[in-house]
Amino acid sequence: MTKTQVQLRVNGRTHELWVGTNRLLLDALHDDLGMADVRYGCGEGVCGTCTILLDGEPVSACLLFAVQVEGREITTLTGLPAADAESHPIQDCFLQAGAAQCGFCTPGMMLTALALVERTERPTREDIRYELVGNLCRCTGYTKIVDAVEEYACRRRGNGSHD
Amino acid sequence: MTGAFEYQLADSWEEAVELHRIWGEDGKILAGGQSLVPMLNLRLVQPAGLIDINPIGAVEPRVADDRLVLSALTRHQDLLRSPLVREHCPILAEGAAQIGNVRVRARGTVGGSMCHADPSGEIPCMVLALDGQLIAHSPRGQRVIDAERFLRSYLTTDLAEDELLTEIRLPIRKHGQGWAFLETVRRYSDFATVEVAATATLSSDAHTVTALRVVVGGVADRPLILSDELLSAAVGGTGRDDELRAVGAAAAATVSPESDVHASADYRRRLTEVLTYRALGKAIERGRAESKGAGV
């Protein structure tokens, strides 16, 4: 198949790569660029493990072709600005709440949650569950994930820890 | 990974129509890709050419001649965010919130949903309830298709092989008209087991129900419009509980859904009854509030 050159803007850096026109963005990010935080789960846009932010909106990288996203800003979990050079505040919240077990779903969960809190300053637990329904976790049972997102929203509002 | 295909970019609708003509049945149109790309990944479809119409871009929703005009490339989340949609066709915002997950709403398009024609999709059900029109373009020119004609059967539309859906036109809400979109799903984000879209028009004194339109999805090969006869127990009435229950029961007695692993035919009939009853109640209540609100 014909390969074509694309420039992908990922986490603030521009990458040039040659891809087949049918190369999924997911495969370009994970296999070609070695980004281990963007993961293949279902290939149908259902499970959320390949969630990335495309110009700030959560999308499934398994349902986009690499050739479609030239000129767009792609953010993955590792591209999040770290508050203290170690971790992003949402990572701290997940860690403290014990909201990850195997960790496979965690990057997608965090990116989806970030976009939610960006739009909704004070999400209810129901808002969080509604937004995260497209991110499947097979370990935690979700309660701690919802706790972590609630805590993150609370911290982001700047009133310290959740009461 | 998908099979190999030729990737074609369309920058304008004219170009898309031309590429669509050239590729014919070997080509597929790529809009939001939330149904098509899973099918490509599973190799259920293997087109020789994929025509990406995303670069055309969607013009903002607008109102012309008492109709809300949506580009086929309008994304579901645009329905949620557009103040114009909320004002003139608020049912679209109510239903769009129940489509897929947040990623599907970010990419999926109204035109794509119509053309995919899933019998339990939210967009087809609502467009039919609003008695919308679909605008199709081909090298032969433009055709206006009523939603009822457009939605033919499971994943089948009235579009000819060389026709491309470009626009959807929906009558804007009239004074004293209420609306409701309700669905039952196993989880948020699933396809509806059964869904109901309803509009109700109230008399100017907000007393009498003068018109109803109800569409039920998930119970046949396409969304079904309830006939005037089925609605007769409530049209001309005052929206009393027994009137609405009678319509729900009549609707349930009419549909012949199929059983599948998610729901039996009986359960779907029961959902048809309950959701029709509830949607009517909500639509009438809102119509009444609209009617009174505007009178002040």
Automatic annotation (TrEMBL), chain A:
Q: Which InterPro entries match?
A: 2Fe-2S-bd, 2Fe-2S-bd_dom_sf, 2Fe-2S_ferredoxin-like_sf, 2Fe-2S_ferredoxin-type, 2Fe2S_fd_BS, Beta-grasp_dom_sf, Diverse_Oxidoreductases
Specify the protein name: Purine hydroxylase delta subunit apoprotein
- Tell me where in this chain the 2Fe-2S ferredoxin-type domain is found: 4-80
Looking at the keywords, is NADP present? no
Keywords from the named record: 2Fe-2S, Iron, Iron-sulfur, Metal-binding, Oxidoreductase
Please indicate which superkingdom the organism of origin belongs to: Bacteria
Drop me one GO molecular function for this one: 2 iron, 2 sulfur cluster binding
From TrEMBL, chain B:
InterPro entries attached to this UniProt entry: CO_DH_flav_C, CO_DH_flav_C_dom_sf, Diverse_Substr_Oxidored, FAD-bd_PCMH, FAD-bd_PCMH-like_sf, FAD-bd_PCMH_sub1, FAD-bd_PCMH_sub2, Mopterin_DH_FAD-bd
What are the FAD-binding PCMH-type domain coordinates in residue numbering?
A: 1-175
Q: Which UniProt keywords apply?
A: FAD, Flavoprotein, Oxidoreductase
Q: Name one GO molecular function term.
A: oxidoreductase activity
Keyword Hydrolase (UniProt): no
Q: Where is the signal peptide?
A: none
The record's section on PROSITE patterns has: FAD_PCMH
PANTHER family per record = XANTHINE DEHYDROGENASE SUBUNIT C-RELATED
Q: What is this protein called?
A: Carbon-monoxide dehydrogenase medium subunit/2-furoyl-CoA dehydrogenase FAD binding subunit
Organism of origin is Tamaricihabitans halophyticus
